[in-house]
Write a structure and sequence with these properties.
This protein has 113 residues and is mainly alpha-helical. Helices cover 73% and strands 0% of the residues. Helix 4 packs across helix 5. The longest helix is centred in the first third of the chain and has 25 residues.
Amino acid sequence: MLPQPTTAEKIRRLPYLIAFDAFNNVFCVLTVFGAVFTLFLSELGLTKERISQVLSLVPFASMGAILMAPLAARVGVKRVFVAFWGSRNIFAGASSPRPGSADDGAWIGPSRT
């Protein structure tokens, strides 16, 4: 077992924690938990029922934490966190529209013709 960090070490790492939380909050608001995502789904042409189904996946998927707890205890909480946090960001970045993508057809969505 690793020794607990001292108070001085905790204070020294505090700016990194604040920066991580700030960027994570911006990511969440701009992707899933904010109005931008709902408007984006509406622009894709999804019905209100389909939008509500997509938005309900996030809380539903968080129930998987109960099933992942034994794995996290065995592999390590930090490794599991970094793996899933990184995969979340990679998936969100890969599925987000890119500048100019509506013009060159790189974005998959309903046609605007």
